[in-house]
Each structure stands twice: as structure tokens, then as C-alpha cells.
Amino acid sequence: MAGAEVDDRERVGGVQDAVVSAWSVQRSRTAIGSSEAIERLKQRALRPDAEVRSGGVGSGVSVKRGDFFITRMVKSPRFARSTGAPYPRRVVIAELWRYPVKSLAGERLEEAELRADGIAGDRSLMIFDEHGRFVTARTRPRLLGLNATIGPSGEPLIGGAEWSSPAAAAAVRDAAGAGARLASSAGHERRFDDTPVLIATDGAIDHLGVDGRRLRPNILVAGVSGLAERGWPGQAVRAGAVELTVERLCKRCVVTTFDPDSLAQDAGVLARINADYDGRVALNCRVVRPGHLRVGDSVEVRPHTPR
Predict the structure, then answer these.
(1) 161 with 136: CB under 8 angstroms?
(2) Are 225 and 89 in contact (CB under 8 A)?
(3) DSSP per residue over 217-271, as a string?
(4) What three-state secondary structure class fits 39?
(5) What does the DSSP assignment read for 60-117?
(6) Residue 8 domain-assigned?
(7) Cα(200)–Cα(249) distance, rounded to whole angstroms?
(8) Is the distance from CB of 144 to CB of 215 less than 8 angstroms?
């Protein structure tokens, strides 16, 4: 195969990058992809010392690995199907996410400490109504429009304001209703909907065709073919010294129907998940071996061996 026709349109969400080998009989140095690939490759570098070249056919980027080049591109399922070539992918952590307040928008991280109860600082606060019942974006979708981060002091911020400040309290009441308040999630059984860690894969997101943020993952794994994640339950996922076990595919809810930026609702997203994916996308995971995670860490999926 000397080349292949490529659908170079970027899909919604911008998280469908993949590493694809530019195979040919001569181990082609042809670059395939989009002009934005250089910056993406620098941000999610396969290897800091890799030799990078742009140009070739189209305006993509080739990265030298050993004695051949591989290419960064916007992933297209049509490309994967049309070539039929056994191109290797490096499976890596592409994104890390923390949600300091349950149901609020989260923050993207370059590295994170993974503990037995998930990423440090994740869902450390919850929102309760005037009767003391916890509330979420399922019934208060405007919460998704508030951004939560961890500040320099280690305390959560809401829109840049300390979570205990009047400004943060007012923002929460405006989104969740009069009487809504923030409180610690420590010891609360509903801190997590299921398991402490949610893993999503680029293959499944691409197949679904939505912005991956709708799934609210903690870890986005790139380089995964299609719906391969559906065979991961019961397996171990390893990245460096960290190990997680995949318990089950994640049952999805109405939160997936809201655009992460505009909050516009598209009920068709959940309808499609229910119809085509048995209502389940991404993976509920538990931590077997805590440790430090970084974007770019290699990921392995192996049979889980109980300890």
C-alpha cells in the first residue's frame, strides 16, 4: 500500500487523534493528516526526542520511530476500514480530568496522583438542597456550566472563587436553586455514581461521534481501535506503576445529552447510546495499585490477576 485516501475533517470534540503508521512497501515517509497535527503532537508527544517532520502528501506530521515514520492524524473510522492494513498504535493516556465538585465542569490535567479513591481532589465536594438531599446535573443541568478547579491552596475553586466564598455560594444557588449549598463529600455513599475512576477511549468516542467531555472521563486513553473497550471488563489497565481493574461498561445518563459549552440539549445522544451501545459507553474502574499518572504514559491492557 503506497497511500490511502483520508477523511481529514476534524470531528466534534477534537479528541479523536490517533497514532497511525504510514506503511508502504518502502516504509513510506508520507505524512497524512491535518495542519494542526504539529501542535497536537508536541502536546501529546510520542517521545520528547522524536524527530518531527511536516509536509509530504497533505500537510500532516511524521515522527521517526526506529527506522520508519509514523503519522499523527485526525482519526477517521473510514480510513481504518478502507486500508485494511495492520498498522500499530501506541496506546497512551491522552487526557486526564478531575472534577473537584460533583456535577460541575472539571479541569484538564497534565499529571495526577491516583489514589485508592480516585484522582486526588476528584468529587471532593457535592451539592445539597435545602432539605439536605444531594443534587446533580441530572436534574440541575446548569451546574455543568460552572467550572471547578483546585487552587494553589489545595482547596476547590468555582469560577476562580474559593468554594466557601459568597460568590461561589451564589453561583451554585443560581444554577441549582434557592437553598442549594456546597458541602464535603467525605464518607458520602454517592460521591461517585459507581466506581472512583472512569476511563474513556478515543475509539469509542469516535464511533459515537460526540465531544468526549459529555462522558466526563477521568482518563482518556488514545490509540484504541473502535469499540475494543467493550472487551475490557475484567481486565487490568496498567500505566507505569499504576494499575486499575475494569469492572464494567458505564451506564450512561441524561448528562450526556448536554453540550459541555453551550448546555444545549440533544436527547438524540442518549437515545443513540441506548439503541446502539446498550446504554453503556466508557469503563467503570477501581484502583488496584495507586501512583502517579501523566499524559503520554503508555497503557497496557492485560488479564487481571487478583492479589
Answers:
(1) no
(2) yes
(3) -SEEEES--TTGGGG-TTEEEEETTEEEEEEEEEEP-GGGGB-TTT--B-HHHHH
(4) helix
(5) EEEEEETTEEEEEEE--HHHHHHH--------EEEEEEE-SBTTSB-EEESEEEEETT
(6) no
(7) 10
(8) no
Residue 6 lies inside a defined structural domain of this protein: no
- What is the count of structural domains for the chain? 3
Query: Which residues have CB under 8 Å from 38's CB, separation 6+?
Result: 52, 54, 61
pTM of this structure: 0.72
Establish if 47 belongs to a structural domain. yes
Residues in the chain: 307
Structure confidence by residue, pLDDT tens digits, 206-237: 999 999 999 999 999 999 999 999 999 999 99
pLDDT digits (tens, 9 = 90+) for 76-96: 333 233 233 333 468 999 999
Residue 51 in grid coordinates? 524527530
Query: Do 178 and 84 have their domain in common?
Result: no
CA-to-CA dists, residue 52 to 41, 47, 64, angstroms: 9, 10, 7
- Predicted local confidence at residue 304, as pLDDT: 77
Q: Is residue 5 part of a domain?
A: no
Confidence category of residue 37, pLDDT binned at 50, 70, 90: very low
Phi, psi of 214 (to 5 degrees): -60, -25
Looking at the fold, whether 103 and 79 belong to one and the same domain comes out as no
Question: For residue 141, what is the DSSP state?
Answer: G
Q: Which residues pair with 219 in a beta bridge?
A: 96, 199
Q: Which three cell numbers stand for residue 104?
A: 460541575
Tell me which residue range forms the domain holding 206: 193-303
CA–CA separation, 136 vs 76, rounded Å? Answer: 34
297 plus 277 within the same structural domain: yes
Say yes or no: 67 and 104 in one domain: no
Residue 16's identity, in one-letter code, is Q
Residue 305's pLDDT is what?
A: 76
The CA distance from 4 to 8, in Å, is: 12
Q: Choose one of 154, 184, 214: the last residue of a domain.
A: 184
